[in-house]
User: What shape does this take?
Amino acid sequence: MSRTGRAGVIILCLAGLAVNAALIGPAWIYTATAQTDFMDLYAGGRLAFTHDLYVPAKVMEAELQAEGKYSPTRLFMRLPCFSLFYWPLAQLPYQAASRVWEALCGLSVAAFAMLWPARRRWHTAVACSWCLPLMMTVAEGQDIGFVLLAMAGSAMLLLRRRAGLAGAVASLCLAKFHLFLLVPVWICARKQWRFARGLAAGCAGLGALCFVAGGMDWPLRYYALIREPGNNPYSEIMPNLHSLFSGLPHGGWMEVAGAAVVALAVWTVSRRQSAECGLAAALAGGILVAPHAYMADCAMAVPAVLLLMRRRGSFLPMQVLFAVLLAPVPWVLLMMGMGTPARLAIGAMVFGLPFYGRMRRGPEARGVLQPA
Assistant: This one.
């Protein structure tokens, strides 16, 4: 890239960061005062190795003692093994731990941008700079940056034909497992069995840690917690099918039927298109079918878009869709309770991929990601 081109990319990235920072606006005060989703992660670290990890009263008591405040909508919802990752931070005073955590969140996003195997690295830089949900993950103290970092590591290993190890690294995405419900569809459609074996091994290891951190009966206590309706508040600002059908007669069945249709679309794309297209459909569709998702979770759109941008040559309507997904507009509308544009954009990616253009057959048909 020429010097002028590099300067243009830098200006474009800075513009995206400035626009998104301005849109978050006064909400940054919550980041500065540590009133973020780190509250429940910190409490989870404090309660690691106990049977109180999924007892709402104990979590709120831990928040109150350490942080001076508590929130009934900020309970520890991760699998028990992830409380072990927060245990070291929980040994620090809350304010200090929050500052360290915010720095780590920013670094995880930067590391994702550097490690993601894009065909052109500036694509990743621009996408990350302009994606409002991605900046929101840092502002809210979310751990999605680390999930994205695990995805970047897994993608790099897939490109190097280390599918088993890639699956093991991808198991760290269990931190947000509800966003990856359609990845098994991609695995089966593409016959990614080596990846599946590595994923299963990684999940088994994390599962063993869950019993160490949460006790032998943690699955029952965890299931009881996620069944509580109060843990799924503000459905009007969700980008998923749950929000779309919430409050309608037979809304639950309509949500299940919609999820089945999305899964079928992911299967079709995975079978007929490239591995990149199939995985992008699984990531985008995962946002729609996730029972619990908010704007920050839509950061999953970044790797989905970047996977499609690896392809040389583009279908113009898809280029427009990429711009829409990375622009702040649908996400601002989502936060205002108007989630239809965001859901339409995500759905258009999943159901529009059959028209994205067939990848040529050959080595790619074996189901592995290909070098750009």
Notes: Residues 269 and 354 are 6 Å apart (CA to CA). The chain is about 65% helix and 0% strand. The chain has a mean pLDDT of 89. The chain has one domain: 3-366.
